[in-house]
Amino acid sequence: MAKNPYHFILLIITNLLVILFVIELGLRVYSSFFIVYDLEMHKYAIELKRISNTSGLIHEHIPNAKAKLMNVGFNINSMGFRDDEISLGKNPDQYRIMVLGCSNTVGWGVEQENVFTALIEKKLNKTKFPVEYQVINAGVGNYNTLLESIQIKDRIQHLDPNMVILHYYINDAEIILNEDVGLFIRSSYLFAFLKNRLKYHKFKREYQNLGSYYLQLYETDSEGWLSAQNAFLDIKEICRKNDAILLVALQPDLHNISRESGQHKCHKIITSFLSDHKISYLDLIDSYRTNVKEDIKSLWVHPNDAHPNIEGHRIIFEALSPVLDSILHKFQ
C-alpha cells in the first residue's frame, strides 16, 4: 500500500515549525540574559514606540511606557520623552532647553541620570542665580533631522523653550521610510534578527566601509542630505519665530573618528553648510579625539554597539558646558 505523500509533507512542515519555535524560544531566553543589539532595538520598537498621529511623523514614544533595554531602565514620561515629568506651562523664573535627536540623544544603553542632558541640567542648577534650568530630552530612536523638524514644530509652542539644541548625528541625512515591517517581524525575535542580519550583509556588499557610505550620503545631489538641509533651515526659522536660541551639536559615529576617515570629510560638509546659513554649532568630534585613551571602543555602550556609553556622554556634557555657560551668562 502506497504511503500518502501529504503525510510526508505535513511531517516536514510540522518539524520545521517545531524547529522555528525552538529557535524563537531559545532567542528569547538567550536575550533575557545576554545583550543582542538587534534584539534590543527590536524590543525598543515594540515596547516603547507607536505610530504617530502627527502628520509627517512616522513614530513616537508611547507615553508612560517602561522597559528594560541594554540592562538599564528606560522610562517614558507622559509627554513621550525619556525624562522627568514636564509641565506644559513654564514658570517666569524657568529657563528651558529642549534637546532634539535620535538614540544617541535619548541615552541608549545609559541610565537616565548619566545622559548628557541630565548632567547639564544638574550642573546648571548648581548656580547661585535664581533661575531653574530645565533640560528636556526630546530624543527618539530612529529620528532624523526631518522628523525632528516636524517634532519641534508640533511641540515648541506648548513647551516654550528658551533654547533648542539639535543633537545631529552623521546618519541623520538618511531617508527614513514609513514601512510596515509585518506581523511576523513584529511578533518574532527570530524574523526580526534575520531581517537585520540580511540588511547588514547587504550593506557590507554595497559599501567598502562606513566612511564610503557616509560620503555618498553627503553628495551634493543626495536626497537625504538635501532633506536634512531643508530641515535645518526649518528648525532655524521655527526657533526664530519662537524667540529660541538654536545650537547644533554634531555627534560623530564612534567607529572611526580619525582625520583620515570619510566621516571627517562629511563633518566638513555639514559645518560648511551651517556656517553659510549662520547656524551656531559645536562639532563634538574633536572632544572625542582628545578624550580617547587607547581604543575608541572604550566609549561604546557595548562591544557590538557604538552608541556612546557613560564616558561618551560625559564627553558631550563637558564639551557643551562652556558653550552653554557663555550663552546663558547673557540671560543671567
Descriptive overview:
With 332 residues, the chain is α/β, with parallel strands linked by helices. The protein has two domains: 1-34; 35-331, SGNH hydrolase (Rossmann fold), CATH 3.40.50. Helices cover 49% and strands 15% of the residues. It has a five-stranded parallel β-sheet with strand order 6-5-7-8-9, with helices on both faces. β1 and β2 form a beta hairpin. It is globular. The model has no long low-confidence stretch (mean pLDDT 91).
Give a quick rundown of the structure:
The protein is built from 12 helices and 11 strands.
Salient structural properties:
Rossmann fold; alpha/beta; 332 residues; 2 domains; five-stranded parallel β-sheet
Report the total helices: 12
State Rg. Answer: 22 Å
Query: Describe the biggest sheet?
Result: 5 strands, parallel
Q: Return the CATH class of the largest domain.
A: Alpha Beta
Instruction: Briefly note the CATH topology name of the largest domain.
Output: Rossmann fold
CATH architecture of the largest domain: 3-Layer(aba) Sandwich
Task: Itemize the secondary structure elements and their pairings.
Blueprint: H1 5-33, H2 37-48, E1 49-51, E2 59-61, E3 66-69, E4 72-75, E5 94-100, H3 103-106, H4 116-124, E6 132-137, H5 145-159, E7 163-169, H6 183-187, H7 189-206, H8 210-217, H9 223-241, E8 245-251, H10 262-276, E9 281-283, H11 285-291, E10 300-302, E11 305-308, H12 310-331
Parallel strand pairs: 5-6, 5-7, 7-8, 8-9
Antiparallel strand pairs: 1-2, 3-4, 10-11
Helix pairs in contact: 4-12, 5-9, 8-10
